[in-house]
Backbone:
């Protein structure tokens, strides 16, 4: 009887040791941008509970029901566009995915951008546009710099002198019909070298090859926009990023 108990004890100890060794070989799942450096690993930029890793005007940005909510009001309007900036890390080549719901006004997702005013949370750079009127949603706009680089349905190549060659890849109105203001939509942004693509609900809405080397950004911050003007509300969730080569 004693011999049998000792055998069982040794067996349990060996199984526990084997489990510990096996777990040690499992890859860690990254949840913070500081934890990720290798290509192909996905990082969650918003934990669903807090604005950890983000900086912005605390009066304008909150977390509600697992969503980042940006909200302005007419009684205390903002004087200029302001942003919630992801401060954990800057990114170069990546695939960024998120869900958005805009209930009024104009917003956007900044990428490869530069924080130019730390006190008022102002950034400049590439923007994947979002608007409730559904006029600009999906376009590629460069905030604070060159303006609209590609309208919805356009594939644009910019040469080193800033000249544009524009080709039509789809009808702007038809593409807009696949975007749903006031409802949740999927946004996917792909930035690889000087090739930039915007997808809403898995449909390509705008594409740019930015060959203007003195201006084209190779990396920068991710940020979310609140646009000056009438009161507005925009919501974001499920924000994640996968570095690519």
Residues:
């Amino acid at each position: 009887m004693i011999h049998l108990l000792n055998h069982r004890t040794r067996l349990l100890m060996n199984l526990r040791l084997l489990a510990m060794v096996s777990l040690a070989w499992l890859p860690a799942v990254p949840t913070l941008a500081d934890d990720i450096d290798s290509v192909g690993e996905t990082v969650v930029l918003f934990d669903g509970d807090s604005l950890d890793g983000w900086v912005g005007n605390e009066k304008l940005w909150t977390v509600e029901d697992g969503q980042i909510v940006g909200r302005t009001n007419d009684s205390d309007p903002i004087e200029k566009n302001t942003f919630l900036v992801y401060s954990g890390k800057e990114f170069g080549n990546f695939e960024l995915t998120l869900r958005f719901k805009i209930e009024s006004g104009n917003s956007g997702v900044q990428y490869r951008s530069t924080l130019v005013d730390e006190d008022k949370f102002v950034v400049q750079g590439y923007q994947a546009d979002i608007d409730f009127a559904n006029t600009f949603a999906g376009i590629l706009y460069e905030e604070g710099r060159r303006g609209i680089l590609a309208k919805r349905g356009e594939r644009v190549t910019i040469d080193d002198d800033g000249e544009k060659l524009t080709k039509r890849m789809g009808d702007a109105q038809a593409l807009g019909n696949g975007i749903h203001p006031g409802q949740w939509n999927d946004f996917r942004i792909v930035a690889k070298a000087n090739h930039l693509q915007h997808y809403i609900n898995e449909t390509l809405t705008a594409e740019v090859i930015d060959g203007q080397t003195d201006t084209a950004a190779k990396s920068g911050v991710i940020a979310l926009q609140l646009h000056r003007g009438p009161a507005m509300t925009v919501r974001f969730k499920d924000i994640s990023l996968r570095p690519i080569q």
